[in-house]
Amino acid sequence: MRRRLTRAETKARTRALLLDAAARTFARKGFTGASVEEIAEAAGFSTGALYSNFSSKEALFLELLSDRRRDRLAAAAQALDAHGAGTGEAVAELGRLLVDVADKDIEFAALQAEFWLYAIRNPRVMDALAASVRESHQALEGLVGAAMARRGAPDGVCVEEVSTVVAALFIGLVRQRRIDPDCVSEELFGQALNWLFTGINAASDEG
Amino acid sequence: MRRRLTRAETKARTRALLLDAAARTFARKGFTGASVEEIAEAAGFSTGALYSNFSSKEALFLELLSDRRRDRLAAAAQALDAHGAGTGEAVAELGRLLVDVADKDIEFAALQAEFWLYAIRNPRVMDALAASVRESHQALEGLVGAAMARRGAPDGVCVEEVSTVVAALFIGLVRQRRIDPDCVSEELFGQALNWLFTGINAASDEG
DNA sequence: GCTTTGACATAGCGGTCACTATCTGAATAG
DNA sequence: CTATTCAGATAGTGACCGCTATGTCAAAGC
Predict the structure, then answer these.
(1) pLDDT grade for B2, boundaries at 50, 70 and 90
(2) What is the mean pLDDT of residues A43-48?
(3) Strand D–CB A45 distance below 7 A
(4) For the residues B176-205, what does the mean pLDDT come to?
(5) Which of A180, A186, A194, A205 is the best substitution to test chain B (most B C-beta atoms within 10 A)?
(6) What domains appear along chain A, each with residue ranges and CATH number?
(7) Average pLDDT of chain B to the nearest whole number
(8) Contact at 8 Å (CB) between A200 and B199?
(9) Are A157 and A200 in contact (CB under 8 A)?
(10) Mean confidence (pLDDT) of chain A
(11) A-chain residues within 8 Å CB-CB of B165?
């Protein structure tokens, strides 16, 4: 049986519900296309509740910008851990991640695109986006560094650069898979990573 | 001295000016954020002129979707031709293309992101976007095929797949360069392509 | 148990938007 | 020269939106 909630608890719950509804609605309609009434209704509240928890539509949006990528990152890390990261299977698991993000979590890619466009147009929030991206890139650098070490990659190659390339590849493939799934098979991301890491080793052996 | 324009000529000119203004405005404000009055004014006309040339805001947007990528493609092909495509310099030239698209033609990336989001949300226009993308990918496949042949790549590797990877890499790097230019140097795209093509050769030598 | 507080609901205000009905004047046709 | 057509201007119209002022009722404090 459910304990009676305190005021602070219900407020926190309302906030979380509003954030979830906002993520769904912004992803489906865009920042300007989504109305605050729509968001509040999707969460089961009124606009009054929304403005009692967030100072403006933009503030709600920016809070998502800081939050959601962290959520995704945690889920991805968990999935990778569960399937033997640090082994040769990591590449296969990254392929599965591509499918997850492109096909299942259809909100994520759309939201990130919204964030990017918003930051391009409102330079004052670009720092926040850059920080959010940097956070996930640092996690990725751990994986990439491990992969390079396992494959005996040389010292001359910059882990940050390789990570940036891997992340760019991922984003580009997710986007393309939403346009034409036939062009981006589930294995293509893993395949491309194999080419990339093989090439890194081979290229440095020459120079 | 300027010849007196016929009605058809002035109308075509008005249409073109409206399309240009629409590209600028949609890129800067987004599809929902840009108003038709804003677009018409930027072109030096009234909303009446706009609705006399396009049936709706959406029709104007969709016309850009078909047009603008072709323009970009033509400019890119010209730039590549001018700097010795088909030689080893092609990779360096592709690096320059990255800088052009990311830094100078700031409209292009934003517009493409708008198109993608719009197509995601309005499945009936996804076909148009897919066709537009396929057009540029086919041009890219010519370049990629030539690069692979020059480097003596094996038969077992699918040109379409490699092209998709190259395009994805490009899009992802442009996006990241707009977030943090320091992370994506001008040479990184060319560097990544070198890794990629080197890896394609090496991987197939093994199997 | 009375008072105070504050989370959330309701209603409405000013402003903007996509789109249209109507008008004007210049290019065309005869 | 006159009549017609039509590109483009002007001036709305109804709908919607972000936000706020105000009301309500239950939890918190004493």
Answers:
(1) very low
(2) 98
(3) no
(4) 91
(5) A180
(6) 1-54 (1.10.10.60), 62-206 (1.10.357)
(7) 90
(8) yes
(9) yes
(10) 89
(11) 169, 173, 188, 192, 195
